[in-house]
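Lab notebook, bench 4. Still working through the backlog of constructs that have no structural model yet. Next entry is a single chain of 620 residues. Request: give me the C-alpha coordinates for it.
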Amino acid sequence: MEILVPLGLLALLGIVVLIIIYIIKPRYQKKNISSTFIWKLSLRYRKKKIPLQWLQKSLLLFIQICVIGLITSVLIEPAVRVMGKDAEKAIILDVSYSMQAEVNGETRLDRAIKQIEKDLNNVNEENKLTIILGKNEPTYLVRRESSVSLIKYALSNIQSTYEECNFESSLSLANTVIDENPSTIVYYYTDCQYASTGYVNVIDFSNNEWNVSLTEVKKYFENGEYVFETNICSYNREFIGKIALSIDGKVKLVQDISLLKNEEVKVVFNKQNIINYKDYKLELLDTNNNAIQDSLLADNIYFEQDYENITHNVELVGKSNTFISSALKSCANVDIYLPKEEKEIAFKDKELYIFDSYVPSKLPEDGVIWFINPTKKIPNLDLIFEKEISGKFTFSSCNNLSNEANKIMNLITPNTIEATKYSVLNNYQDYEVLIECNNNPILLLGHYKNAKIIVLATDLHYTNLPITMNFIVLINNLFNYSVKTTLYKGIYNIGENIQINSKVLTKELYFDDKLKMNSFDYKDSINEVVNKPGIFEIKQIMTNGTTIVDKVFIKTSENESNFRYTVDTLAVDRYINPELNIEGRPGFDSYDYTSIAKYFAIALLVLVIVEWGVQYREQY
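Model written out:
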Protein backbone atom coordinates (compact mmCIF):
# COMPACT_ATOMS: atom_id res chain seq x y z
CA MET A 1 0.00 0.00 0.00
CA GLU A 2 1.22 3.50 -0.84
CA ILE A 3 0.41 6.85 0.88
CA LEU A 4 -0.30 9.52 -1.70
CA VAL A 5 -0.78 12.46 0.75
CA PRO A 6 1.64 11.96 3.69
CA LEU A 7 0.62 15.34 5.23
CA GLY A 8 -2.70 13.77 6.14
CA LEU A 9 -0.92 11.94 8.95
CA LEU A 10 -1.01 15.21 10.91
CA ALA A 11 -4.65 14.43 11.64
CA LEU A 12 -3.42 11.84 14.14
CA LEU A 13 -2.64 14.75 16.46
CA GLY A 14 -6.39 14.83 17.06
CA ILE A 15 -5.97 11.72 19.25
CA VAL A 16 -3.69 13.66 21.60
CA VAL A 17 -6.20 16.55 21.74
CA LEU A 18 -9.04 14.11 22.45
CA ILE A 19 -7.18 12.51 25.36
CA ILE A 20 -6.39 15.97 26.85
CA ILE A 21 -10.05 16.89 26.63
CA TYR A 22 -11.00 13.72 28.47
CA ILE A 23 -8.42 14.44 31.18
CA ILE A 24 -9.63 17.98 31.95
CA LYS A 25 -13.31 17.29 31.38
CA PRO A 26 -15.25 16.87 34.70
CA ARG A 27 -16.93 13.49 35.03
CA TYR A 28 -19.88 14.67 37.18
CA GLN A 29 -23.08 16.54 36.32
CA LYS A 30 -24.72 19.44 38.20
CA LYS A 31 -28.10 18.37 39.64
CA ASN A 32 -30.41 19.53 42.46
CA ILE A 33 -30.82 16.95 45.22
CA SER A 34 -32.95 16.84 48.37
CA SER A 35 -30.21 15.76 50.83
CA THR A 36 -26.47 16.31 51.52
CA PHE A 37 -25.94 12.68 52.51
CA ILE A 38 -24.82 11.72 49.01
CA TRP A 39 -21.95 14.23 49.13
CA LYS A 40 -20.11 12.11 51.68
CA LEU A 41 -20.56 9.03 49.52
CA SER A 42 -19.26 10.92 46.46
CA LEU A 43 -16.14 12.14 48.27
CA ARG A 44 -15.46 8.61 49.55
CA TYR A 45 -15.80 7.22 45.96
CA ARG A 46 -13.41 9.79 44.48
CA LYS A 47 -10.76 9.02 47.08
CA LYS A 48 -10.88 5.30 46.29
CA LYS A 49 -10.85 5.75 42.48
CA ILE A 50 -7.66 4.84 40.56
CA PRO A 51 -6.42 7.78 38.42
CA LEU A 52 -7.38 7.52 34.73
CA GLN A 53 -9.30 4.32 35.38
CA TRP A 54 -12.11 5.76 33.36
CA LEU A 55 -9.85 5.72 30.29
CA GLN A 56 -9.70 1.94 30.39
CA LYS A 57 -13.46 1.59 30.61
CA SER A 58 -14.55 4.26 28.22
CA LEU A 59 -15.99 2.65 25.11
CA LEU A 60 -16.83 6.07 23.78
CA LEU A 61 -13.19 7.21 23.92
CA PHE A 62 -12.04 4.10 22.04
CA ILE A 63 -14.62 4.64 19.31
CA GLN A 64 -13.68 8.30 18.97
CA ILE A 65 -9.97 7.39 18.60
CA CYS A 66 -10.92 4.94 15.84
CA VAL A 67 -12.95 7.71 14.17
CA ILE A 68 -9.88 9.98 14.15
CA GLY A 69 -7.81 7.10 12.75
CA LEU A 70 -10.28 6.54 9.91
CA ILE A 71 -10.41 10.26 9.19
CA THR A 72 -6.61 10.20 8.91
CA SER A 73 -6.81 7.17 6.58
CA VAL A 74 -9.13 9.07 4.26
CA LEU A 75 -6.96 12.19 4.28
CA ILE A 76 -3.70 10.38 3.37
CA GLU A 77 -5.40 8.84 0.30
CA PRO A 78 -4.10 5.24 0.58
CA ALA A 79 -3.65 3.39 -2.71
CA VAL A 80 -2.29 0.10 -4.00
CA ARG A 81 0.19 -0.09 -6.87
CA VAL A 82 -0.74 -1.96 -10.01
CA MET A 83 1.10 -2.34 -13.26
CA GLY A 84 0.55 0.69 -15.41
CA LYS A 85 -0.97 0.61 -18.83
CA ASP A 86 2.45 0.72 -20.48
CA ALA A 87 4.31 -1.31 -17.82
CA GLU A 88 6.15 -4.52 -18.64
CA LYS A 89 7.70 -7.18 -16.44
CA ALA A 90 11.29 -8.33 -16.74
CA ILE A 91 11.86 -11.34 -14.50
CA ILE A 92 15.36 -12.53 -13.67
CA LEU A 93 14.75 -16.19 -12.84
CA ASP A 94 17.53 -17.66 -10.71
CA VAL A 95 18.33 -21.15 -12.05
CA SER A 96 21.43 -21.71 -9.91
CA TYR A 97 22.09 -24.93 -8.01
CA SER A 98 20.48 -23.79 -4.74
CA MET A 99 17.16 -23.40 -6.57
CA GLN A 100 17.10 -27.23 -6.85
CA ALA A 101 16.50 -27.53 -3.09
CA GLU A 102 13.14 -29.19 -2.55
CA VAL A 103 10.47 -29.84 0.04
CA ASN A 104 7.91 -32.60 -0.54
CA GLY A 105 9.05 -33.06 -4.12
CA GLU A 106 8.73 -29.37 -5.07
CA THR A 107 11.85 -27.33 -5.68
CA ARG A 108 12.32 -23.62 -5.24
CA LEU A 109 12.51 -23.31 -9.01
CA ASP A 110 9.18 -25.15 -9.34
CA ARG A 111 7.52 -22.60 -7.05
CA ALA A 112 9.03 -19.69 -8.97
CA ILE A 113 7.79 -21.09 -12.30
CA LYS A 114 4.30 -21.60 -10.85
CA GLN A 115 4.26 -17.96 -9.76
CA ILE A 116 5.17 -16.84 -13.27
CA GLU A 117 2.39 -19.02 -14.70
CA LYS A 118 -0.14 -17.42 -12.34
CA ASP A 119 0.83 -13.97 -13.58
CA LEU A 120 0.42 -14.87 -17.26
CA ASN A 121 -3.20 -13.63 -17.19
CA ASN A 122 -1.86 -10.07 -17.17
CA VAL A 123 0.35 -10.61 -20.24
CA ASN A 124 -0.84 -8.95 -23.46
CA GLU A 125 0.41 -6.64 -26.18
CA GLU A 126 0.62 -3.75 -23.74
CA ASN A 127 2.02 -5.72 -20.80
CA LYS A 128 4.74 -7.89 -22.33
CA LEU A 129 6.93 -10.27 -20.39
CA THR A 130 10.68 -10.84 -20.42
CA ILE A 131 12.24 -13.81 -18.61
CA ILE A 132 16.00 -13.95 -18.11
CA LEU A 133 17.62 -17.19 -16.94
CA GLY A 134 20.00 -16.16 -14.18
CA LYS A 135 23.12 -18.31 -14.40
CA ASN A 136 26.84 -17.86 -14.96
CA GLU A 137 26.20 -16.69 -18.52
CA PRO A 138 22.57 -15.47 -18.44
CA THR A 139 20.31 -15.77 -21.46
CA TYR A 140 16.82 -14.69 -22.46
CA LEU A 141 14.15 -17.34 -22.16
CA VAL A 142 11.67 -14.95 -23.77
CA ARG A 143 12.13 -11.27 -24.54
CA ARG A 144 9.24 -8.79 -24.58
CA GLU A 145 6.87 -11.61 -25.42
CA SER A 146 3.05 -11.27 -25.41
CA SER A 147 2.12 -14.81 -26.50
CA VAL A 148 1.00 -16.74 -23.41
CA SER A 149 1.23 -20.10 -25.18
CA LEU A 150 4.80 -19.45 -26.29
CA ILE A 151 5.79 -18.38 -22.75
CA LYS A 152 4.20 -21.52 -21.27
CA TYR A 153 6.11 -23.68 -23.73
CA ALA A 154 9.39 -21.95 -22.86
CA LEU A 155 8.71 -22.36 -19.13
CA SER A 156 8.12 -26.09 -19.59
CA ASN A 157 11.65 -26.51 -20.97
CA ILE A 158 13.52 -24.73 -18.20
CA GLN A 159 16.31 -26.74 -16.60
CA SER A 160 18.18 -25.70 -13.49
CA THR A 161 21.96 -25.54 -13.53
CA TYR A 162 24.72 -26.24 -11.03
CA GLU A 163 26.21 -22.80 -11.53
CA GLU A 164 25.91 -19.57 -9.57
CA CYS A 165 23.63 -16.80 -10.77
CA ASN A 166 25.56 -13.91 -12.27
CA PHE A 167 23.12 -11.22 -11.21
CA GLU A 168 25.08 -8.29 -12.64
CA SER A 169 25.10 -9.79 -16.15
CA SER A 170 21.45 -10.78 -15.79
CA LEU A 171 20.51 -7.23 -14.83
CA SER A 172 22.41 -5.92 -17.85
CA LEU A 173 20.03 -7.93 -20.05
CA ALA A 174 17.05 -6.55 -18.14
CA ASN A 175 18.37 -3.01 -18.60
CA THR A 176 18.26 -3.42 -22.37
CA VAL A 177 14.50 -3.95 -22.01
CA ILE A 178 14.25 -0.86 -19.78
CA ASP A 179 16.06 1.13 -22.47
CA GLU A 180 13.26 0.23 -24.88
CA ASN A 181 10.46 0.72 -22.36
CA PRO A 182 11.47 2.78 -19.28
CA SER A 183 8.28 1.72 -17.46
CA THR A 184 9.50 -1.89 -17.24
CA ILE A 185 9.34 -3.36 -13.72
CA VAL A 186 12.25 -5.67 -12.84
CA TYR A 187 11.75 -8.72 -10.60
CA TYR A 188 14.35 -11.12 -9.26
CA TYR A 189 12.97 -14.59 -8.41
CA THR A 190 15.62 -16.15 -6.20
CA ASP A 191 16.22 -17.80 -2.81
CA CYS A 192 18.45 -15.22 -1.15
CA GLN A 193 17.75 -12.32 1.20
CA TYR A 194 18.90 -8.78 0.38
CA ALA A 195 18.92 -5.79 2.71
CA SER A 196 18.78 -3.26 -0.13
CA THR A 197 17.44 -3.99 -3.60
CA GLY A 198 17.18 -0.63 -5.39
CA TYR A 199 14.69 -0.69 -8.25
CA VAL A 200 14.62 -4.51 -8.37
CA ASN A 201 11.73 -6.33 -6.68
CA VAL A 202 13.24 -9.40 -5.01
CA ILE A 203 10.99 -12.39 -4.28
CA ASP A 204 12.43 -15.15 -2.09
CA PHE A 205 11.21 -18.69 -2.89
CA SER A 206 13.13 -20.52 -0.17
CA ASN A 207 11.02 -22.57 2.25
CA ASN A 208 13.28 -23.73 5.10
CA GLU A 209 14.78 -26.58 3.09
CA TRP A 210 17.33 -28.74 4.89
CA ASN A 211 20.91 -29.06 3.77
CA VAL A 212 24.14 -30.36 5.28
CA SER A 213 27.34 -29.36 3.52
CA LEU A 214 31.11 -29.70 3.62
CA THR A 215 32.85 -26.32 3.38
CA GLU A 216 36.35 -24.91 3.63
CA VAL A 217 38.08 -28.27 3.13
CA LYS A 218 41.83 -28.08 3.68
CA LYS A 219 44.78 -30.43 3.61
CA TYR A 220 48.29 -29.69 4.81
CA PHE A 221 51.46 -31.44 5.89
CA GLU A 222 52.20 -31.08 9.61
CA ASN A 223 54.42 -32.97 12.04
CA GLY A 224 55.41 -35.51 9.41
CA GLU A 225 51.89 -36.41 8.21
CA TYR A 226 48.99 -35.10 6.16
CA VAL A 227 46.12 -33.47 8.07
CA PHE A 228 42.63 -33.08 6.62
CA GLU A 229 40.03 -30.67 7.99
CA THR A 230 36.60 -29.41 6.99
CA ASN A 231 33.72 -27.35 8.31
CA ILE A 232 30.27 -28.94 8.42
CA CYS A 233 27.04 -26.98 8.73
CA SER A 234 23.42 -28.14 8.95
CA TYR A 235 20.96 -25.54 7.68
CA ASN A 236 17.38 -25.31 8.99
CA ARG A 237 17.53 -28.63 10.84
CA GLU A 238 19.65 -30.54 13.31
CA PHE A 239 21.80 -33.39 12.01
CA ILE A 240 23.14 -36.55 13.60
CA GLY A 241 25.37 -38.66 11.41
CA LYS A 242 28.96 -39.43 10.45
CA ILE A 243 31.81 -38.23 8.29
CA ALA A 244 34.15 -40.70 6.60
CA LEU A 245 37.71 -40.14 5.39
CA SER A 246 38.90 -42.45 2.61
CA ILE A 247 42.50 -42.68 1.37
CA ASP A 248 43.19 -44.20 -2.05
CA GLY A 249 39.68 -45.68 -2.19
CA LYS A 250 39.74 -47.29 1.27
CA VAL A 251 37.93 -45.96 4.34
CA LYS A 252 40.54 -44.74 6.81
CA LEU A 253 38.38 -43.31 9.60
CA VAL A 254 34.70 -42.68 10.39
CA GLN A 255 33.80 -40.03 12.95
CA ASP A 256 30.41 -39.35 14.58
CA ILE A 257 29.02 -35.82 14.33
CA SER A 258 26.04 -34.06 15.87
CA LEU A 259 24.91 -30.57 14.83
CA LEU A 260 22.17 -28.30 16.07
CA LYS A 261 20.04 -26.30 13.67
CA ASN A 262 22.27 -23.87 11.72
CA GLU A 263 25.32 -24.92 13.73
CA GLU A 264 28.76 -25.12 12.12
CA VAL A 265 31.55 -27.34 13.45
CA LYS A 266 35.12 -28.05 12.38
CA VAL A 267 36.30 -31.65 11.99
CA VAL A 268 40.03 -32.44 11.87
CA PHE A 269 41.55 -35.77 10.82
CA ASN A 270 45.09 -36.02 12.15
CA LYS A 271 47.41 -38.52 13.84
CA GLN A 272 46.54 -41.09 11.16
CA ASN A 273 50.14 -41.48 9.95
CA ILE A 274 49.23 -40.52 6.38
CA ILE A 275 52.55 -39.60 4.80
CA ASN A 276 51.56 -39.99 1.14
CA TYR A 277 48.45 -40.71 -0.87
CA LYS A 278 47.11 -40.73 -4.40
CA ASP A 279 43.64 -39.39 -3.57
CA TYR A 280 41.37 -38.73 -0.59
CA LYS A 281 37.62 -38.37 -0.13
CA LEU A 282 35.42 -36.90 2.60
CA GLU A 283 31.78 -38.05 2.69
CA LEU A 284 28.80 -37.30 4.94
CA LEU A 285 26.81 -40.36 6.05
CA ASP A 286 23.71 -41.05 8.11
CA THR A 287 23.77 -43.16 11.27
CA ASN A 288 23.49 -46.32 9.12
CA ASN A 289 26.58 -45.40 7.07
CA ASN A 290 24.46 -44.55 4.02
CA ALA A 291 24.70 -41.37 1.98
CA ILE A 292 22.46 -38.67 3.48
CA GLN A 293 19.42 -37.47 1.55
CA ASP A 294 19.19 -33.74 2.12
CA SER A 295 18.02 -31.05 -0.31
CA LEU A 296 21.34 -30.81 -2.17
CA LEU A 297 23.47 -33.93 -2.64
CA ALA A 298 26.53 -32.59 -4.48
CA ASP A 299 28.00 -30.88 -1.42
CA ASN A 300 27.98 -34.05 0.71
CA ILE A 301 31.29 -35.34 -0.71
CA TYR A 302 34.68 -33.83 -1.38
CA PHE A 303 37.36 -35.58 -3.43
CA GLU A 304 40.85 -34.71 -4.58
CA GLN A 305 43.49 -36.61 -6.47
CA ASP A 306 46.98 -35.32 -5.75
CA TYR A 307 48.58 -33.93 -8.91
CA GLU A 308 51.05 -31.67 -7.09
CA ASN A 309 53.24 -34.35 -5.51
CA ILE A 310 53.32 -36.96 -8.27
CA THR A 311 56.58 -38.89 -8.36
CA HIS A 312 57.82 -39.85 -11.83
CA ASN A 313 59.80 -43.05 -12.30
CA VAL A 314 63.02 -42.50 -14.26
CA GLU A 315 65.83 -44.93 -15.09
CA LEU A 316 69.26 -43.42 -15.66
CA VAL A 317 72.17 -45.46 -17.03
CA GLY A 318 75.56 -43.90 -17.86
CA LYS A 319 78.43 -41.74 -16.74
CA SER A 320 76.85 -38.27 -16.47
CA ASN A 321 74.53 -39.17 -13.62
CA THR A 322 75.37 -36.14 -11.51
CA PHE A 323 74.66 -33.58 -14.24
CA ILE A 324 71.46 -35.20 -15.41
CA SER A 325 70.10 -36.15 -11.96
CA SER A 326 70.45 -32.60 -10.67
CA ALA A 327 68.73 -31.18 -13.73
CA LEU A 328 65.87 -33.71 -13.53
CA LYS A 329 65.25 -33.01 -9.86
CA SER A 330 64.89 -29.33 -10.65
CA CYS A 331 62.05 -30.19 -13.04
CA ALA A 332 59.75 -32.31 -10.85
CA ASN A 333 59.54 -34.98 -8.19
CA VAL A 334 61.47 -37.87 -9.69
CA ASP A 335 62.45 -41.30 -8.42
CA ILE A 336 65.69 -42.03 -10.27
CA TYR A 337 66.70 -45.67 -10.58
CA LEU A 338 70.45 -46.15 -11.16
CA PRO A 339 71.27 -49.74 -12.21
CA LYS A 340 74.90 -50.73 -11.82
CA GLU A 341 74.97 -53.69 -14.18
CA GLU A 342 73.29 -54.70 -17.43
CA LYS A 343 71.22 -57.35 -15.67
CA GLU A 344 69.76 -54.73 -13.34
CA ILE A 345 68.44 -52.56 -16.17
CA ALA A 346 64.62 -52.31 -16.27
CA PHE A 347 63.03 -52.42 -19.71
CA LYS A 348 59.44 -51.62 -18.74
CA ASP A 349 57.19 -49.80 -16.23
CA LYS A 350 59.27 -46.62 -16.29
CA GLU A 351 58.08 -43.30 -17.65
CA LEU A 352 61.50 -42.24 -18.86
CA TYR A 353 64.67 -44.18 -19.76
CA ILE A 354 67.96 -42.32 -20.14
CA PHE A 355 71.09 -43.99 -21.57
CA ASP A 356 74.18 -41.78 -21.45
CA SER A 357 77.20 -43.04 -23.43
CA TYR A 358 75.68 -46.50 -23.18
CA VAL A 359 73.64 -48.60 -25.62
CA PRO A 360 71.60 -51.47 -24.12
CA SER A 361 71.25 -54.86 -25.75
CA LYS A 362 67.56 -54.19 -26.42
CA LEU A 363 65.11 -51.31 -26.26
CA PRO A 364 62.64 -50.75 -23.38
CA GLU A 365 59.08 -51.81 -24.10
CA ASP A 366 57.37 -48.53 -23.22
CA GLY A 367 57.91 -44.92 -22.23
CA VAL A 368 60.25 -42.30 -23.67
CA ILE A 369 63.91 -43.13 -24.32
CA TRP A 370 66.80 -40.65 -24.34
CA PHE A 371 70.10 -41.63 -25.91
CA ILE A 372 72.95 -39.28 -25.05
CA ASN A 373 76.18 -39.83 -27.02
CA PRO A 374 75.38 -43.31 -28.42
CA THR A 375 78.73 -44.89 -29.34
CA LYS A 376 77.37 -47.71 -31.47
CA LYS A 377 74.27 -48.73 -33.39
CA ILE A 378 71.12 -48.75 -31.30
CA PRO A 379 69.20 -52.06 -31.49
CA ASN A 380 66.09 -52.05 -33.69
CA LEU A 381 66.62 -48.45 -34.81
CA ASP A 382 67.58 -47.42 -38.33
CA LEU A 383 70.06 -44.88 -37.02
CA ILE A 384 73.67 -45.80 -37.83
CA PHE A 385 76.60 -44.58 -35.75
CA GLU A 386 79.36 -43.73 -38.23
CA LYS A 387 82.21 -42.00 -36.40
CA GLU A 388 83.22 -39.34 -33.92
CA ILE A 389 84.62 -35.99 -35.07
CA SER A 390 86.90 -33.86 -32.91
CA GLY A 391 87.61 -30.16 -33.27
CA LYS A 392 86.09 -26.84 -32.28
CA PHE A 393 82.41 -26.62 -33.13
CA THR A 394 79.39 -24.41 -32.57
CA PHE A 395 75.89 -25.83 -32.91
CA SER A 396 73.03 -24.24 -34.86
CA SER A 397 69.24 -24.45 -34.91
CA CYS A 398 67.00 -25.89 -37.61
CA ASN A 399 64.07 -24.30 -39.38
CA ASN A 400 60.48 -25.43 -40.02
CA LEU A 401 60.15 -27.37 -36.79
CA SER A 402 56.99 -29.17 -35.72
CA ASN A 403 54.93 -28.01 -32.74
CA GLU A 404 56.50 -30.68 -30.56
CA ALA A 405 60.01 -29.67 -31.61
CA ASN A 406 59.29 -25.96 -31.06
CA LYS A 407 58.23 -26.70 -27.47
CA ILE A 408 61.47 -28.60 -26.88
CA MET A 409 63.54 -25.76 -28.38
CA ASN A 410 61.74 -23.01 -26.45
CA LEU A 411 64.31 -20.56 -24.94
CA ILE A 412 67.22 -22.66 -26.26
CA THR A 413 70.03 -20.78 -28.09
CA PRO A 414 72.03 -23.47 -29.96
CA ASN A 415 74.57 -20.98 -31.34
CA THR A 416 75.92 -20.50 -27.79
CA ILE A 417 76.59 -24.22 -27.36
CA GLU A 418 80.18 -25.21 -28.10
CA ALA A 419 81.69 -28.71 -28.41
CA THR A 420 85.01 -30.35 -29.13
CA LYS A 421 83.58 -33.71 -30.14
CA TYR A 422 80.34 -35.11 -31.53
CA SER A 423 79.08 -38.26 -33.25
CA VAL A 424 78.15 -38.49 -36.92
CA LEU A 425 74.89 -40.37 -37.54
CA ASN A 426 73.45 -41.65 -40.77
CA ASN A 427 70.08 -42.97 -41.94
CA TYR A 428 68.10 -40.47 -39.88
CA GLN A 429 65.50 -39.55 -42.53
CA ASP A 430 62.63 -40.74 -40.29
CA TYR A 431 63.73 -38.40 -37.50
CA GLU A 432 63.17 -34.69 -37.00
CA VAL A 433 66.40 -32.75 -36.48
CA LEU A 434 66.22 -29.94 -33.91
CA ILE A 435 69.91 -28.98 -33.58
CA GLU A 436 72.70 -29.57 -36.08
CA CYS A 437 76.42 -28.97 -36.61
CA ASN A 438 77.88 -28.65 -40.11
CA ASN A 439 74.70 -30.29 -41.50
CA ASN A 440 75.12 -33.24 -39.16
CA PRO A 441 72.24 -33.94 -36.74
CA ILE A 442 72.94 -33.31 -33.05
CA LEU A 443 69.48 -33.44 -31.41
CA LEU A 444 66.89 -35.73 -33.04
CA LEU A 445 63.30 -36.64 -32.27
CA GLY A 446 61.74 -39.91 -33.48
CA HIS A 447 59.44 -42.86 -32.76
CA TYR A 448 59.77 -46.59 -32.43
CA LYS A 449 56.76 -48.84 -31.84
CA ASN A 450 55.50 -48.07 -28.31
CA ALA A 451 58.25 -45.58 -27.49
CA LYS A 452 59.41 -42.11 -28.41
CA ILE A 453 63.11 -41.63 -29.05
CA ILE A 454 65.29 -38.60 -28.34
CA VAL A 455 68.96 -38.71 -29.42
CA LEU A 456 71.67 -36.22 -28.43
CA ALA A 457 74.75 -37.05 -30.56
CA THR A 458 77.43 -35.57 -28.33
CA ASP A 459 79.16 -36.30 -25.05
CA LEU A 460 78.16 -33.74 -22.40
CA HIS A 461 81.72 -33.75 -21.08
CA TYR A 462 82.97 -32.37 -24.40
CA THR A 463 80.54 -29.43 -24.49
CA ASN A 464 79.92 -26.28 -22.49
CA LEU A 465 76.26 -27.29 -22.20
CA PRO A 466 76.27 -28.41 -18.51
CA ILE A 467 77.65 -25.04 -17.37
CA THR A 468 75.09 -22.90 -19.24
CA MET A 469 71.42 -22.17 -18.70
CA ASN A 470 70.77 -23.98 -21.98
CA PHE A 471 71.31 -27.29 -20.18
CA ILE A 472 68.70 -26.71 -17.44
CA VAL A 473 66.19 -25.36 -19.96
CA LEU A 474 66.80 -28.19 -22.43
CA ILE A 475 66.42 -30.91 -19.78
CA ASN A 476 63.26 -29.21 -18.50
CA ASN A 477 61.75 -28.97 -21.97
CA LEU A 478 62.66 -32.55 -22.82
CA PHE A 479 61.26 -33.76 -19.49
CA ASN A 480 57.95 -31.89 -19.99
CA TYR A 481 57.72 -33.41 -23.45
CA SER A 482 58.51 -36.90 -22.19
CA VAL A 483 56.63 -37.03 -18.89
CA LYS A 484 53.23 -35.35 -18.72
CA THR A 485 50.89 -34.89 -15.78
CA THR A 486 47.28 -35.45 -16.81
CA LEU A 487 45.97 -32.41 -14.92
CA TYR A 488 47.48 -29.40 -13.23
CA LYS A 489 45.15 -29.73 -10.25
CA GLY A 490 42.54 -32.18 -8.95
CA ILE A 491 39.58 -29.85 -8.23
CA TYR A 492 37.72 -27.55 -10.61
CA ASN A 493 34.63 -25.38 -10.26
CA ILE A 494 31.44 -25.79 -12.27
CA GLY A 495 31.97 -24.27 -15.72
CA GLU A 496 35.75 -23.95 -15.34
CA ASN A 497 37.94 -24.97 -18.27
CA ILE A 498 39.86 -28.22 -17.68
CA GLN A 499 43.01 -28.82 -19.69
CA ILE A 500 43.64 -32.56 -19.95
CA ASN A 501 47.15 -33.50 -21.06
CA SER A 502 47.63 -36.72 -22.94
CA LYS A 503 50.60 -38.93 -22.21
CA VAL A 504 53.29 -39.17 -24.86
CA LEU A 505 52.23 -42.68 -25.86
CA THR A 506 48.45 -42.30 -25.47
CA LYS A 507 46.47 -44.20 -28.07
CA GLU A 508 42.96 -43.25 -26.86
CA LEU A 509 41.78 -40.78 -24.24
CA TYR A 510 38.33 -41.00 -22.62
CA PHE A 511 36.65 -38.46 -20.36
CA ASP A 512 33.51 -39.52 -18.51
CA ASP A 513 33.49 -42.71 -20.65
CA LYS A 514 33.38 -40.68 -23.88
CA LEU A 515 36.20 -40.92 -26.43
CA LYS A 516 37.81 -37.49 -26.69
CA MET A 517 41.07 -38.15 -28.53
CA ASN A 518 43.01 -40.85 -30.32
CA SER A 519 46.54 -41.14 -31.68
CA PHE A 520 45.45 -39.80 -35.07
CA ASP A 521 44.42 -36.43 -33.61
CA TYR A 522 48.04 -35.38 -32.96
CA LYS A 523 47.06 -33.33 -29.91
CA ASP A 524 49.00 -32.76 -26.71
CA SER A 525 45.88 -31.86 -24.75
CA ILE A 526 42.14 -31.32 -24.89
CA ASN A 527 39.90 -28.85 -23.08
CA GLU A 528 36.69 -29.78 -21.29
CA VAL A 529 34.07 -27.64 -19.55
CA VAL A 530 31.89 -29.59 -17.11
CA ASN A 531 28.55 -28.17 -15.97
CA LYS A 532 27.65 -30.76 -13.35
CA PRO A 533 29.34 -31.73 -10.09
CA GLY A 534 30.87 -35.08 -9.18
CA ILE A 535 33.92 -37.29 -9.62
CA PHE A 536 34.90 -37.89 -13.26
CA GLU A 537 37.34 -40.41 -14.69
CA ILE A 538 40.01 -39.69 -17.27
CA LYS A 539 41.11 -42.94 -18.92
CA GLN A 540 44.09 -43.20 -21.26
CA ILE A 541 44.84 -46.37 -23.20
CA MET A 542 48.52 -46.51 -24.10
CA THR A 543 50.07 -47.89 -27.28
CA ASN A 544 51.36 -50.92 -25.35
CA GLY A 545 47.82 -51.76 -24.18
CA THR A 546 48.10 -50.57 -20.58
CA THR A 547 45.44 -48.26 -19.11
CA ILE A 548 46.05 -45.20 -16.92
CA VAL A 549 43.09 -43.85 -14.94
CA ASP A 550 43.04 -40.43 -13.30
CA LYS A 551 40.18 -38.60 -11.59
CA VAL A 552 39.00 -35.03 -11.26
CA PHE A 553 36.44 -33.53 -8.87
CA ILE A 554 34.00 -30.87 -10.06
CA LYS A 555 32.52 -28.93 -7.15
CA THR A 556 29.71 -26.43 -6.71
CA SER A 557 30.08 -23.01 -5.14
CA GLU A 558 29.91 -22.97 -1.35
CA ASN A 559 27.49 -20.02 -1.57
CA GLU A 560 24.96 -22.34 -3.20
CA SER A 561 25.12 -24.71 -0.22
CA ASN A 562 24.72 -21.96 2.38
CA PHE A 563 20.98 -21.64 3.01
CA ARG A 564 21.59 -18.75 5.42
CA TYR A 565 23.52 -16.75 2.84
CA THR A 566 22.49 -13.10 2.78
CA VAL A 567 23.69 -10.10 0.80
CA ASP A 568 23.63 -6.55 2.12
CA THR A 569 23.11 -4.74 -1.15
CA LEU A 570 21.98 -5.89 -4.58
CA ALA A 571 24.16 -4.39 -7.31
CA VAL A 572 21.65 -2.34 -9.28
CA ASP A 573 23.67 0.66 -10.42
CA ARG A 574 23.14 1.59 -14.04
CA TYR A 575 23.45 4.55 -16.37
CA ILE A 576 20.27 6.63 -16.62
CA ASN A 577 19.67 8.54 -19.82
CA PRO A 578 19.24 12.18 -18.74
CA GLU A 579 16.79 12.76 -21.60
CA LEU A 580 14.27 10.46 -19.90
CA ASN A 581 11.85 12.23 -17.61
CA ILE A 582 12.01 11.29 -13.95
CA GLU A 583 8.90 9.12 -14.15
CA GLY A 584 10.61 6.93 -16.69
CA ARG A 585 13.68 6.17 -14.64
CA PRO A 586 14.06 2.84 -12.82
CA GLY A 587 13.40 3.25 -9.15
CA PHE A 588 10.78 5.96 -9.66
CA ASP A 589 7.03 5.77 -10.13
CA SER A 590 6.25 3.62 -13.18
CA TYR A 591 2.99 2.25 -11.77
CA ASP A 592 -0.70 3.12 -11.75
CA TYR A 593 -2.42 3.50 -8.39
CA THR A 594 -5.87 2.37 -7.27
CA SER A 595 -7.23 4.40 -4.36
CA ILE A 596 -8.78 2.52 -1.44
CA ALA A 597 -9.81 5.68 0.50
CA LYS A 598 -13.48 5.06 -0.23
CA TYR A 599 -13.42 1.87 1.82
CA PHE A 600 -12.07 3.78 4.80
CA ALA A 601 -14.77 6.44 4.27
CA ILE A 602 -17.51 3.82 4.43
CA ALA A 603 -16.03 2.43 7.64
CA LEU A 604 -15.83 5.99 9.02
CA LEU A 605 -19.52 6.61 8.35
CA VAL A 606 -20.50 3.38 10.10
CA LEU A 607 -18.31 4.15 13.10
CA VAL A 608 -19.69 7.72 13.43
CA ILE A 609 -23.21 6.33 13.65
CA VAL A 610 -22.08 3.87 16.32
CA GLU A 611 -20.38 6.71 18.23
CA TRP A 612 -23.61 8.74 18.24
CA GLY A 613 -25.49 5.79 19.62
CA VAL A 614 -22.98 5.13 22.42
CA GLN A 615 -22.86 8.80 23.38
CA TYR A 616 -26.66 8.99 23.52
CA ARG A 617 -26.76 5.94 25.79
CA GLU A 618 -24.23 7.37 28.25
CA GLN A 619 -25.99 10.74 28.49
CA TYR A 620 -29.59 9.55 28.64
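Notes after review: Residues 573-590 have pLDDT under 50 and may be disordered. The first strand starts at residue 2 and ends at 3. Flag for follow-up if needed.
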